[in-house]
Amino acid sequence: MSAAAKRRPKHIRESLGDRIFMVIVYIILTFCLVVVLYPLIYVVSASFSSSAAIRSGEVWLYPVDITLQGYEAVFGNYQIMTGFLNSFIYTFGGTAVNLVMTMLCAYPLSRKEFYGRGLITGIFVFTMYFGGGLVPTYMLINNLGLLDTRWVMIIPTAMSVWNVIIARTYLSSTIPDALFEAAELDGCSEFQFFIRIVIPLSAPIIAVLALYYGVGNWNAYFNAMIYLSDSELFPLQVVLRSILILGDVDMTKVQNVDALVQKQGLADLLKYAVIVVASVPVMCIYPFVQKYFVKGVMIGSIKG
Description:
By secondary structure, this protein is an all-alpha fold.
């Protein structure tokens, strides 16, 4: 190695303006992190604190007078546990239907030889901007006999056009035509090619779509408010809305009600505990699909 190469700096020296810019960027990002993270920390801390500490405003960052009364009330409330069960049914059942419908629709639209795919895509996109409205939709759901059934939380939202476009773009850019031609020469049918080749190669986009659909189904509440009147079918989000907004908590269904009612801050404590418990399932699933998220975001980006 020459003497000039040894004297060459290993890192590019940043100018004073670059350093000032990076300091400002870090300050802004830190501020955004605090703004987003602090409410989450406060909710978790309040859910483990005593009702007296919450009422007196002693809870700021850490739990005060740690107690599990809020979580005992959550898991002892029949209405909340029924909502949990319903939300799991709607989330897993709805996500399975969503993925099947989306992939079955995206695959033919990704094939160049599919006649009329441009027209069909245009019709799908049209539905993203124009709809019949709430009253005609309610009449349709009623005529189909879906009111007050679990299917009303699954069938009307069985497919998202936006996610179909994402999946179609992924298949078009990932599955080459030569692969289908080779499989066709080996006697592989369209359905066999879709099941044995397309689906395994589409694991990243399927994971991303599963997260999109799963979070959407878990947080869905509007359809339940409109089409469901039986409280036994309410998802957790509707029950949570009743607790947080309407303050409608059936204390007769809480275990050890005599000891809990004596505490005036039980309602607030219950709210924080329900928020934490309702958020945990989604937070537990996200780390397993996070590595596919970058691939999903990069779909359709300019490649050179």
